[in-house]
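Here is one such tokenized protein:
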Amino acid sequence: AEITSLALREAEPFTLHSILDLAVNTDEDQLARFLHEELPVRFAQRIRMLEALPNWQEKSSIASVRQMYVMSFKELRLADPGQPKQFQTRLRSIKQRHSQTNLLVNGFRHYVEEDKLKLSDINAWLDNFFSLRVSTNLLISHYLHLVAGATPSSMQGANLSFEPDDNPYATLIDQHCSPARIARHAAHLVTRMCKLRYGVAPRITVMD
């Protein structure tokens, strides 16, 4: 009943500006309280999205992801942001659990095989679902980095043979993020993959 109730509640809208504002202008306690208040609403909405899929109970991967969100919802409702260590442990557990969300792809493969949903509808649903995850995952990761005392400049690029000054894929909000640097990183990886697979690679020029 609580999941249904919160799923009907309008979540605080997230924009790039509001996410940056939350990350930069709130302290650890404020961000913890915000996550405790808003994450259950968003999890409830995703549970509702999953339950709206046809015969979702018969798709083990979809049922598994739904149960994952139900578990995370319940854990968050019982967590106390006023107990920082407990709350941080809970968020780390949820973040790890939600790394399995890609299981959804297998469930939708069955819908395609059964001709239950159009491919365009599936793509739209997945785009919406995973887009909703971006802002919340980013804030969770940022909060956990924040309480650990990490900053963008301290995120060293371990195991990188290029641009070792910092990790271009650090999962936290960095006001000094360089899109060009990330693009060069990606170009480097693509070039290496092409050479390994095909023996040649197109020349990629990143304009800053």
In short: Residues 8 and 45 are 8 Å apart (CA to CA). The mean pLDDT is 83. The radius of gyration is 20 Å.
